[in-house]
Design a protein that fits this description.
With 75 residues, this protein is an all-alpha fold. It has one domain: DNA polymerase, domain 1. Helices cover 55% and strands 0% of the residues. The two termini are 13 Å apart.
Length: 75
């Protein structure tokens, strides 16, 4: 079975402090979240965490977009 990076690892590749893109801003903020499930790959696990534990994500639609980009890259 091939290695598949976690969603967090993928998200960290999107960081750019000068970008105004919502997904990039999500990545920028997630890097400072010490409780983020860093090894998770599962949509529901990450989604539940974000819905219950974060204030830096203004819309779950942004997470959905980022997760789709993650799936596209992993396939």
């Amino acid at each position: 079975m091939a290695y598949r990076q976690s969603f967090y690892q993928f998200l960290m590749t999107l960081r750019d402090p000068d970008s105004t893109d919502e997904v990039v801003q999500f990545a920028n903020n997630a890097q400072f979240d010490s409780s983020f499930p860093k090894q998770a790959q599962d949509y529901k696990e990450i989604s539940d965490y974000l819905e219950l534990n974060t204030s830096y994500l203004p819309s779950m639609t942004i997470f959905d977009q980022a997760y789709q980009q993650y799936l596209d890259k992993m396939n």
